[in-house]
Every structure is written in structure tokens, then in C-alpha cells.
Amino acid sequence: MSDRSTDRTLLSIQDLRVSYPTPEGPCAVVKGVSLEIARGERLALVGESGSGKSVTARSVLRLDSEARLQGAVRLGDQNVLEMTSGQVRRLRGARVGLVFQDPLAALNPVKTVGWQITQPLRLRGVGRREARNQGVELLERLGVADAARRFDDYPHQFSGGMRQRVVIAIAVIADPELLIADEPTTALDVRVQARVLELLSELAQERDMAVLLITHDLGIVAGFAERVAVMREGELIEAGDVDRIYRSPAHPYTRALLDAVPRIDDSPGRRLSGGSGPAPRRSAAGKEEQ
Amino acid sequence: MTEVPPPLLEARKLVKTFPGRRGGRAVDEVSLIVRRGEALGLVGESGSGKSTTARCIAGLLRPDSGRVLVEGQEVTSPRARRRGRRRVQMVFQDPYSSLNPRMTVADLVGEGLYVHGIEPDRARRRDRVVELLETVGLDSGHLDRYPRSFSGGQRQRIAIARALSVGPDLLICDEPVSSLDVSVQAQVLDLFADLRETLGLALLFIAHDLAVVHHLCGRVAVMNAGRVVEQGERDQIYRSPGHPYTRSLLDAVPVPDPAVERARAAARGWDGPGAQSAEQQKEGEGL
């Protein structure tokens, strides 16, 4: 993925290195990751825990104040790593929207959802009534029944799936060019997850909004992303078109990850760990785990 | 005595309510059967009552009514429960909170052997613990270490060894792999499959992940709002589900194959009854 840069390129991460200071010296968490997202593109960054996928995504908006960042993160023609913190803050909600795993933690419990949804617009000088109209419309678009009435409810009055819709509304109401979604459906039940992903996908297409989806779940990637990047231990293992990666992954780690996922359309009893194919007879349990 | 041997485990019309809980019974007349050596998957979304059912069966919660029988013998009285409990062991979701952090691996795995008087001799107990660790794929060099020095997957293996120590016929596993990374989950699922094969162990496997249950369990029961809405053989449930709730769950399970996902999305036609009504229903419960 050395140089895919075109005028469609929205985000370009070049040789990103992230480390955290510890008493024993800096601890490298991301070790030279390069990645590009085109306008309107849906890219999934996948990996297991500790792979550095979240840290990479959070670096785009410099969300971790202790993290030491090197390399370049270009949004359009600006390098985020060279901006002042005020400039970075102004990107949030405007050019880049954020959705995290836990919607309850992302919402202010003492403000109505309507207040929170309209903030990104209000901060940019949109009038109260106009902001409210846009907010209700967006919430309706996101499948919240009776959105006008529920606009003045508080976060605790919503279910998990509905809360995540509120968070998505806050993230996209100011029409960002990029949405960073970090495990946005991990806390949701499977049917709600499917619906939320569908909505995210539709919104992205309607608004020509790029999405960087961070996830451990290779199942949801298959239905959502156009491109996939696989990370392990702070390094980018491989990246490419979703069909290509799933059909013929170049890296054995990607192959092993895909093989490890049980599927409802698969023959049961297949060995999931250590090689594909039908189950070899083994006398005792394996010791593959490191 | 009857000619047909009774099932290994039978739960009859279990009912459990929690005070102050809106939305009725947590478990509403649930009846299940697990036969010797069989794996029964109990699936459902959060709040469906699957974990409460498991805890009633394991004797960790007292059901309001209903019976739990192990090989035809009631295990609801305290004395009978102790006897039955040896036959039925439990593995929990979170291997970080289910293992006492102040006990070594040797003590954690050996405790049951000691308490139940299976291996009173210290040296022989240690030998047995080593065997158990090998069964679950752990190095016996870890004997004197504490849970904190193990990864999540290794801890889950320790919890499984601990459960196996008293020679159970049935393991009740409550979301045993849902907190694990996918590659570690794969290893632990393979371990469960091995244990079934080598020890003839029966499983009652509680999970929200329908793909995991499809992989491991020959029979499946689907729970919704405290009730078993459907149960049957794996192929029947997954290929031709009879209940619309089961169908809506299956439609939503992601398949790690882009071509399959595109075909499903095209066929799905969203805003169908499934997802929407589920959320509306939860909304009503004030969740």
C-alpha cells in the first residue's frame, strides 16, 4: 500500500509510530503503520486485542494525550501531528466524527439527547430551531421512532441500540468527511448490531462519508467494508480489497484469523485453530496458545 | 425402574422471578434435557434468561418452582445437590473473576479433589493436577503460579481443569469464550470438542453467538424473554427454523464472507419486523 495517493485520498497515515512512556522507558504500541482512506471509502482495521488498531485510529485525532506520535497523519493537505491542540479539537465533529463502543460513556447523562445532537451544529453558529429540525430529521433517518418527542429525553431513557444511534447522530450531524467507529456494535445484540451497521453503511453512502471501522469481528467486516487492513502487535500485516483478502489472504496470520471464526454456513466440528480442513484426530488437547 | 435410562440432566418447568424486575419472569417454565455425551446449546440475546436458567440448573440460584434432575434424581435438596453437583460442574464467562487470585494453580485445580475427598493424599493430588493441566493443554510447570500471570485463554483452561477435577459428566458453560480473542476462542472451542470426544463429556453451552453454538452443539434451544421458543437438532434449527424469532436471529448473524454477505443484504430488505420490533420491545422494558 506504498502509494495509492490520488486526489480522492482523504486520510493518509504514513509510518505512524506510537509509544507510551513507562517507568522502564517508552513502550512502542504502533510500529510504523501506513494506511490510506479515499473519500467515501469504508475501511475496516481489524486485529485482536493488543494489535494497536484502536491506538492507530485514535492517533488520527490525537485522542490520547500521553501518547508520543511520530510519522504523519494527513487529513486532506494538513498534517494532524503538526497542528496545535486547538486546531485538532476543531476537527472533531466537523471533519471527523467519532463513535465508540460504549454509548453510555460517550453521552452526557444530564443533558437531553437533543441538546447533545445539536451541539456540533450550534457550535458552528447554526440557529437553535434549524439545528433541532436537522437533529430530529437525522434521528428519524436513524430509525428512532417518534424522534421529535424523544428528542428531549435523556440517555438513560434509551436502550443500548437506540443510544448508539444517538451517538451516531452526534458524530455525523455536522457532515464530517470521515467517521471513526471503534467497535461500535460490540456491546449490542446481534439483531441490533446488524441494523446499526446497515444504517452506518447507508449514511456513509448517502453523504459520501468515509468510515474507518475498528473491529475484532471478521464477520461484520465482510458485510460492511470495501477494504480491510489487518494489524498484529503494532504492525500492519496486510491490507487490500475485502473480497481479495477473504478469498486469498497473503499473510498466514490473516488466513489463521479467518479460519478461527466459526460460521453458521460451515460444517460443524471443523478444527478452528492451527490449520484448516477437516478435524484431524488428536488424543489430547493442543498447546498452541502462546 | 423403567427400561429407558433417564437423561443425564433434566430441567422441568423452571421458573425464576427477580423482585422489582419489570417485564415478568426471568425464566418462564423452561424445560430442557441433556443426554449423556451430548452438547446442548442454549442461545438468546441479552436478557433472554439463558444465564439465569444455567444458574438455576447449576444450583447457584434457587428457582421459584420447577425441578432439576440428574439421572432421574432430584438435586434440589441441599444434600442431594452436593451429590449432584459433582456430576455437574460450571465454567463461567470471565476467567478474571472466576478464579481466586490468591490461590495457586495447584490449589485451584486441586481444591475439588480435596473437598470431595477424591484425592486426600497431597503428593498424589499434585500428580492428578498435573494430569488435569495436560488434559486442558497447559504446562505443568505453571503449578505454583497465580492466575494473574496467565492470559485470558490460559485462565479459561485453568477454570476448565478445575471443573474437570471432580470427574463431572456434564459441564455447564456460561459464555465461556465470549471474552476471548478470536484465535484464543478457536483454541478453547477445539478443547471443548476434544474433551467431549475423549471424556464423553456432555455440555450445556450458553452463548449469544449462534455461530459458536452451531460449531459445537448438536442440539440447540433458543430463548427469548424467559421462554424457550424453539429447540431441536442443529440442522433443523439452522436450516429451517420454525420460529420467526430464531429466523430473525439467524438473519442477523454475520458471515465472514463478503460474497455471502452481499447476497444476504440484497435478500434481506431491511426494516423487516425482526430488528426493529426487538428494540421497540426492549424500549418498553426501559432498558
What does this 3D model show about the protein?
- The complex is a heterodimer of chains A (290) and B (287).
- Chain A has helices spanning 53-59, 85-91, 103-106, 113-122, 128-141, 147-150, 160-172, 190-207, 218-224, 242-247, 252-260; strands at residues 9-20, 27-38, 42-46, 68-75, 78-79, 96-99, 178-182, 210-215, 227-232, 235-241.
- By secondary structure, chain A is an alpha/beta fold.
- Chain A folds into two domains: 1-95 and 178-187 and 209-262, 3-Layer(aba) Sandwich (Rossmann fold), CATH 3.40.50.300; 103-175, no CATH class.
- Chain A has a six-stranded mixed beta sheet with strand order 6-7-8-3-9-10, with helices on both faces. A four-stranded antiparallel beta sheet of chain A has the order 2-1-4-5, covered by helices on one side.
- Chain A starts with 8 loop residues before the first strand and ends in a 30-residue tail after the last helix.
- With 287 residues, chain B is of the alpha/beta class.
- Chain B has two domains: 9-253, Rossmann fold, CATH 3.40.50.300; 254-287, no CATH class.
- Chain B has eleven helices and ten strands.
- Chain B has helices spanning 50-58, 78-87, 105-115, 122-135, 152-164, 182-199, 210-216, 234-239, 244-252, 258-268, 273-284; strands at 9-16, 27-34, 39-43, 65-70, 73-74, 88-91, 170-174, 202-207, 219-224, 227-233.
- In chain B, the strands form two sheets. A six-stranded mixed beta sheet of chain B has the order 6-7-8-3-9-10, with helices on both faces. In chain B, strands 2-1-4-5 form a four-stranded antiparallel beta sheet.
- Chain B is globular and about 65 Å long.
- Residues 270-287 of chain B have low confidence and may be disordered.
- Chains A and B meet through helix 7, helix 8, helix 9, helix 10 and helix 11 of A and helix 5, helix 6, helix 7, helix 9 and helix 10 of B.
Give a nutshell description of this structure.
Chain A is an alpha/beta fold. Chain A has 11 helices and 10 strands. A 6-stranded mixed β-sheet of chain B has the order 6-7-8-3-9-10, with helices on both faces. Chain B has a 4-stranded antiparallel β-sheet with strand order 2-1-4-5.
